[in-house]
Design goal:
five-stranded mixed beta sheet, 96 residues, 2 helices, alpha+beta
């Protein structure tokens, strides 16, 4: 299992200069508390790079209590892949 600091290093390397970035995390945290910490870190990291977290895909069967939104960000089921996908956009390219 990756530690939050490891995720932050992944975020840092995954933020290219293009207007849209998708990051896939293949080791989804087991606990809701860890997932919420990870999502919060992703929002802060994206904000620091002038990219908004605009969409989240995750295994909803494991986290049904999360609902359809994390703060203002839509949350969708990732399907059978059981991964966490985070979509970032620069404000100029964002449709949200």
């Amino acid at each position: 299992m990756m530690k939050p600091a490891d995720y932050e290093r992944v975020f840092d390397k995954a933020m290219p200069l293009s207007s849209t970035t998708a990051l896939t995390v293949t080791e989804v945290p087991d606990r809701l508390e860890d997932l919420l910490q990870l999502l919060g870190s992703a929002m802060i990291e994206g904000f620091g790079k002038q990219k908004r977290l605009t969409e989240i895909h995750l295994p909803m069967a494991r986290f049904p209590e999360l609902g359809s939104k994390f703060w203002h960000v839509p949350v969708e089921d990732c399907g059978e892949l059981h991964v966490l996908r985070l979509f970032f956009e620069t404000p100029a390219s964002s449709a949200h």
